[in-house]
Amino acid sequence: IETPTSTLAARAGLKTGYGLGNMATITEKSVFHGHNGSIDGFMAIYNYEPLHRAGFVVMINSLSNEALAASSIITAYLERTWAIPQSVLQPVPDSKSNLKINPTKLQAWGGFYDSIAPTAQWLAPLEQPIPTRVSIENGLLTFNSVQRKESAPGLFQRPDHVVANIVFVQSPDGPLMLSGSDARRRISSSELIAKVSYAAVWILALLSSLILIFLWIIAVIRRRLRGFSALMVRFVPVAAMLLPVSFFICLVVGLIDPVTQFGTESQVARSLWVLSLLIPVGGAIALLVVWKFGREIRLSLRLFAWTNSLLNLTACIAFWHYGWLGLRIWL
Description:
Elements: H1 8-11, E1 23-26, E2 31-39, E3 42-49, E4 54-60, H2 66-78, H3 86-89, H4 103-106, E5 111-115, H5 124-127, E6 132-137, E7 140-143, E8 146-152, E9 155-157, E10 166-171, E11 174-179, E12 183-187, H6 189-221, H7 228-255, H8 258-263, H9 267-293, H10 299-321
Antiparallel strand pairs: 1-2, 2-3, 3-4, 5-6, 5-12, 6-7, 7-8, 8-9, 9-10, 10-11, 11-12
Helix pairs in contact: 6-7, 7-9, 7-10, 9-10
């Protein structure tokens, strides 16, 4: 029950993680086992430590994070008299240490990693929007700003953890970084550049759109901007581009209280559904408008309109990939 066996991490030698309905929590002095859970208006946590025969249960009639904070306080209280294991007392190796890690082997794990095992598949883009960097410096591996020591081939342990919590393995698609509840793949330099470039273009286009739409509204009010074609080719692509932004805003608002907002047919959930349907429709209309009326405006505005329309098209592809088109999450 306590020992995972079927995950990629377990097959690679990681002894902690998610067993049969049982999760491991690693601290500086011990490994607690247990589980937590919540429904609307209720949260519960139980943890136990077999070696010292210690444990606790926390139950609260709320979805407040205070329950998680309470469990951390209780864990620290139970551990207050326990000895720190030798595996933690052992120093992190450095350039002068006999425990120095072979830097040549470590170079195989350096790079940027993307998650391939999100907690919720439909929330994958929000769980880890930015790739995580694993750096190799002075013969040491650093991940999440923490230098880690190699306790066994491919297994790495935080200085303040009693056992290893991540393992690196080679796969046909390249290196994988695995933990008890997560899996990440190393992305190539070209993929990283493509993602960063796309994000930069999107942000630049969005900021430009917000500025220009303000100026265009002023021009319309002062009657300096007239004509159906001129208005359509300016406002429609920008409006189409703002639809995915509105979707993400609703998504973030819903995550404040996900059980209520996503688990029921709330206003937020209905808004997500409507917006997910409007995004491809708006993109198609934007492309049609630019194609039909684009020749009537100057080249710079035409290129800007085409850019916004194509960005919306790529957003539609991403929405389809993650199952967001026609998303009715309460079902």
